[in-house]
């Protein structure tokens, strides 16, 4: 079961990276993609401990937000018309998130380019591999959540079906009991009425 989920995650991740076009460089991982109008696109990447991360992006007319491992904003609502960059030093390992917000645009999509490079204790690690691993883990967690929801729905449906069958059985027994009571009551009423209207005849004494 888990192997099937792993293959499903790999297939979904490959489909994701068909849309998001990666560009590779020595020690640098870059992505180019389009942010539709009235949408916000976010990317997560794993940063090891004691690593300096340099994030560069070209996102004209798009707001940029960067969140740290504690989900607190490192950069908030930054707006640049030219290429910009930001250097971050990780104190603890975790996932950073960069979001490109184009919700203020009603009709115009914008093409965004950004690169992530890491220097430090784990410089040999390829950030693109880390991003792919992060995407696979996220998709696997989503599939696991969907599977749990399906199990909950299945259990709830089974419980509702048992409740319905039990209620129907009680209704049948109650109807049968009512029918028996009505039959007995009808027979008693007929017997009483017959006694009222058919009095026995008194025989006169005969003298011999």
What key phrases describe this protein's structure?
208 residues, alpha+beta, four-stranded antiparallel β-sheet, 2 helices, 9 strands, 43% helix
Describe the structure.
This protein is an alpha+beta fold and 208 residues long. Helices cover 43% and strands 32% of the residues. The protein is built from two helices and nine strands; from the N terminus they run H-E-E-E-E-E-E-E-E-E-H. It has helices spanning 2-19, 127-197; strands spanning 21-25, 28-35, 40-47, 51-58, 63-67, 73-79, 84-89, 94-101, 110-120. Strands 1-2-9-4-7 form a five-stranded antiparallel β-sheet. It has a four-stranded antiparallel β-sheet with strand order 3-8-5-6. Strand 5 (63-67) and strand 6 (73-79) form a beta hairpin. Helix 1 crosses helix 2 (127-197). The longest helix is centred in the last third of the chain and has 71 residues, at 127-197.
Quick summary of this structure?
With 208 residues, the chain is an alpha+beta fold. 43% of the residues lie in helices and 32% in strands.
């Amino acid at each position: 079961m888990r192997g099937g989920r792993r293959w499903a995650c790999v297939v979904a991740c490959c489909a994701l990276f068909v849309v998001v076009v990666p560009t590779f460089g020595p020690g640098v991982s870059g992505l180019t993609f389009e942010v539709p109008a009235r949408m916000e696109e976010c990317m997560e990447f794993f940063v090891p401990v004691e690593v300096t991360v340099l994030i560069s992006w070209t996102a004209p007319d798009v707001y940029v937000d960067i969140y740290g491992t504690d989900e607190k904003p490192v950069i908030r609502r930054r707006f640049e018309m030219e290429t910009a960059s930001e250097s971050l030093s990780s104190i603890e390992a975790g996932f950073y998130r960069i979001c490109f917000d184009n919700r203020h645009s009603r009709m115009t999509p914008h093409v965004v380019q950004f690169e992530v490079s890491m220097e430090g204790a784990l410089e040999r690690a390829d950030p693109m591999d880390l991003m792919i691993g992060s995407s696979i883990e996220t998709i696997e967690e989503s599939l696991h959540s969907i599977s749990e929801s399906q199990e909950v729905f299945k259990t709830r449906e089974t419980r509702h079906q048992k409740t319905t069958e039990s209620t129907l059985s009680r209704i049948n027994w109650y109807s049968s009991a009512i029918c028996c009571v009505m039959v007995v009551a009808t027979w008693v009423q007929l017997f009483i009425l017959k006694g009222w209207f058919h009095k026995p005849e008194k025989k006169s004494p005969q003298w011999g």
